[in-house]
Amino acid sequence: MKILKIGSDLDGVILLWLFFIKKNTREVLAKLKAEGHTIKIVTARGNFLTLFQAKLMLKIYGLGYLEVVGVGKNGQKYSELEGFDIFIDNKVSHLLAIDGRVKNLYIFSKKSKNDFCNLETWWKVYWEVEWIAQEEEQ
Q: How far apart are CA 106 and CA 119, in angstroms?
């Protein structure tokens, strides 16, 4: 199975879903990491305080191993995603700005938007990564 690079702008979503809605967030991300996949959070948070807050919260909840990069509100996320296989965001505008630069783009939402395939649970993210890894290997 090919090892994939997975990008996400879900720092707030990870924290929200981790303890209040979906308790398998930590389990799925740890499983992906253990399988050797690269996971990187690329967020529009840019100033020191909001970026520090995101990193601190991830560390408190046992996800401190995740790399977090802040590009700012007007930053180009795609510059941090060079060579990545997957990018997941909860905002269509961010996906549109990256379209064509990352092969597989997904919206983390309960329904598909602007023809982006939706992934609404962390297990769906995991199985999509597994499927793409198998396809890429062939």
A: 7
Task: Show the tokens assigned to 118.
Answer: 């939706």
Say how far apart CA 50 and CA 70 lie, in whole Å: 9
Distance of alpha carbon 127 from the chain centroid:
14
- Based on its alpha-carbon atoms, the radius of gyration of the chain, rounded to whole angstroms, reads 14
As a whole-number percent, the residues of the chain with pLDDT over 90 amount to 15
Q: What pTM value is reported for the model?
A: 0.82
Bridge-based pairing state of the strands 86-89 and 5-8: parallel
Phi first, then psi, for residue 38 (nearest 5°) are: -85, 130
Q: Which of 123, 121, 92, 120 has its CA nearest to residue 105?
A: 92
Residue 123, CB-side half-sphere exposure with 13 Å CA sphere: 3
2: amino acid identity, one letter: K
Q: What is the pLDDT of residues 57-77, one digit of tens each?
A: 788 878 888 888 888 776 678
The total number of residues shown for the chain amounts to 138
